[in-house]
Amino acid sequence: MPKSPFFEATGSAYGITAKVFHWAIVLLLMVQFPIGWLMPDIRQGETPGAAMGIHLFIGLSILLLIVLRLAWRLSHPVPAAVGLHRWQRVASECVHWLLYASVFGTTMTGWFFASFRGWPISMFASMPLPALTTPGSPIARLIGSWHSAAGWALLFAIAVHVLAAMFHAIVLRDDVLRRMLPVAYFDRDPPR
Ligand code: HEM
Ligand code: HEM
Question: Transmembrane region positions (predicted)?
């Protein structure tokens, strides 16, 4: 069956599905980090307020998206390479896997934190999710305490990734950034 740019990678560009996952997660993270930093501290025994409620809602949506995205990524080919050196391909792959891992790690440590506090959490405020441990569990406390560090690791990976994308677009002026831009005509290879 012929491949459709609406779903899968064609030529050297990512398909629509990969782009929707990519940019939806970028937008959600742009909201999630400021909420995480600005929301009021919450003490043992208190129930989550509105800001924390939004943080949990967006965080669990990011978790769902990254799991679906990873499943899509592992079952579909990436677009053909655009003439990079081998070391550049290896480096970018490493950063991509670090991004997947740190998004997953940040969301899961948050879920452990909520489980430690004994908060009931649900996907889209309607599908209850199980607690990962019993409330007050020392292991959940430990893993939950890594949430902030996991967020910083994610920010570091994002900074390297975005700087590399800008370097390709502005200095090297190659097609790397174009592969992932949302605009439709970038889905096609330029006419020869
Ligand atoms: C990638 C997604 C996420 C990001 C980027 C993120 C980011 C953050 C940040 C920056 C903070 C503030 C940390 C600090 O003040 O040191 C925070 C706190 C918190 N987040 Fe997240 N978070 C995410 C997902 C989640 C999820 C899925 C949950 C729970 C299901 C969660 C639960 C919490 C809790 C309970 C706190 C308060 C922790 C504390 O007081 O130390 N987060 N988050
Ligand atoms: C303005 C911000 C961003 C820009 C300009 C950007 C740009 C790009 C580009 C151009 C690619 C394709 C690279 C290639 O073809 O080798 C890409 C892939 C990727 N980006 Fe971003 N990105 C941004 C933010 C993010 C963020 C915040 C995350 C993660 C949370 C992320 C995760 C990824 C991943 C995992 C891939 C690899 C896709 C795959 O092949 O599996 N990006 N990005």
Answer: 20-39, 51-72, 97-114, 149-172
